[in-house]
Prior knowledge:
The chain contains 16 helices and 27 strands. By secondary structure, it is an alpha+beta fold. It folds into four domains: 3-33; 100-111 and 147-292 and 454-504, Bira Bifunctional Protein, Domain 2 (BirA Bifunctional Protein, domain 2), CATH 3.30.930; 305-433, no CATH class; 515-629, Anticodon-binding domain (Rossmann fold). The strands form seven sheets. Strands 3, 7, 8, 9, 10, 11, 12, 17 and 20 form a nine-stranded mixed β-sheet that branches. It has a five-stranded mixed β-sheet with strand order 24-23-25-26-27, with helices on both faces. The two termini are 49 Å apart. It binds zinc ion. Zinc ion (ZN) binds at residues 280, 282-283, 285, 445, 447-448, 451. Zinc ion binds at residues 280, 282-283, 285, 445, 447-448, 451. Belongs to the class-II aminoacyl-tRNA synthetase family.
Amino acid sequence: MSPKSIQTGLSRTCRLCLYRILSNPSSLKRSLVIDHRNRISNFFVPTGGIAYKKDSQMDVHSTLIRAGYVRQPYSGFFHYLPLGQRVHQKLEQLIDKHMRSVEGASKLALSTISSEELWQSSGRLEKGLSELFRFEDRKESRYLLSPTHEEEITTLVSSLVKSHKQLPLRLYQITRKYRDERRPRLGLMRGREFTMKDLYTFDATEGAALETYREVQGAYKALFEEIGLPYIHVRPILLPPAEHFLTNEKAEADSGNMGGSLSHEYHFPSLSGEDTVISCRNCGYCANEETAQIAPPKPMLDLAVSRIATFHGITKDRKTLINIHYPRYTKATDDGVLNEVHAGRVKSVIRDFDPSVMNALDLWFDAFVGYAHLAEEGSYSRVVNIFDARIPPSHYKDIPPSRFSKMIEKKSMEDFPIPTASITLDDPEFGSSLNLLKTQDGDGCPKCGEGKLEATGAIELGHTFHLGTRYTVPLRADVLNGAGEWKPMVMGCHGIGVSRMIPAIAEVYSDHNGLCWPRVVAPYDVALVHGSVKKNAAVPPKEDIEAVYDVLVSGGLVGGTDVDVILDDRDKDIVWKLKDAVLVGYPIVCIMGKSWVNSRKVEIEVRKTKVKLEVELADLRTVIEGLLKEL
Ligand SMILES: [Zn+2]
């Protein structure tokens, strides 16, 4: 910055300050005490120390920003600030511990960049086009930022492993991945850059691969339990493998050609969750909302005609208007919950249905082609009326005039015969299973037939796939078996959304005042806060504070077990510092204030249990160790 540009725009008083600063270079630096102690003054924590207003809404993403963990430079991208980086690192260490429990798992780090050519050969390039970050180098070779690494790891392993005697092989990494989400949202929950743990397993036989799969399930269970994260373990369902990583469309009937596969999802129940998990308490049935089945719905005999709604959809060729008639509410009489049409279920009836269109009715009128008596067969616009099985057949004729019929009238098209078909309860193909609505609380359980389903908002934190030979066949990853034959290796892949886990943990462990990390991922175990409420009151001397810090860290002994402590030595009053410690969410705060000055006692506050204690220095370390074991 030139002196001239410094002057521009500054008031006279500011210029005076600037002059003082420039004429005294040491005041340009922040004061740092560098020793073996962790000091907040030396640490970059842009945080506020401000409590939430009581009526403001809880939002984990904004709490993480306010408390100085992350910043979001662009939609879906995040900078981890030092506090956030520490939480991430601890989470990573914890995941390492549990992955090592899967016998023989080794950690590696593959390049972020993969080639389009490789993705072409696995057949995934075309499918993932809209969500891949792609680019070209100076030689015009095409690359992409990997959203997942099945192709790369299979190629790597197949170049190094030739015999069944080198198996099983379990390789995992915790690295950044990229997906050009259409709608990045909910902070770290759904970013365009995210950290994922992905474990790839290679076995010689299907049986051995399934055994590995079970072993990984055990490690996942132990991991979630150690963090104390509640999770819903979605039971095995048939899914097309790996496409999951690229799109959110699950179990689309037409993706079945990838080969069905064993899969488990680990969902974190959360009101802000964008997925819905459906479960039955009676029999334990549990499925993702996209794939959940329900017992075939029965006609709601007491449904009033006025409570029937109509959804308009359109086909990809824009010729067929789809009118779906369904009960507006889940209950026939009182209000119940608003029903919603389920795109996947409409697609199972009309395969060409385009769920991305919002204004189907207008679009269909705009694209109207010819009339039946003028056009060639099949080239004209037409209408399909579909009646959800919940609508009693006696109501079909009485459905109230919809916007559709009003528009027909307005456009004076009444006299033209528009080919119209109906799909109803009598339909031999779909008939009584015509369930076109999203699964809701209270729907009948498809498994036991007795229980009622419950819908819970959820966020997917983990996903395990038994991939079989999905990648090893097209990428020719074969090994010689005992009989001297070349056979494709059998693969599994097991993901955990690491960056997603941070807001999930934060959501479970937080309140109106701020965060409350479980010790295992907390940025520090203990914050040591000192000072006084009043400006001129006596404060503990520097030597005392440092002595207490040293006792906390190692019991004052060389070689004592380390407790992770940070000293809040900022030039602020103690009330401000305490509020800040609560916002940041250290499991334990040790306070040196009035009690220390009067009676040489350290006050201890446990964030989670709200326990408050006063202890003498001699007992401090033992008490802290005991408390930390419970956190
Ligand atoms: Zn059930």
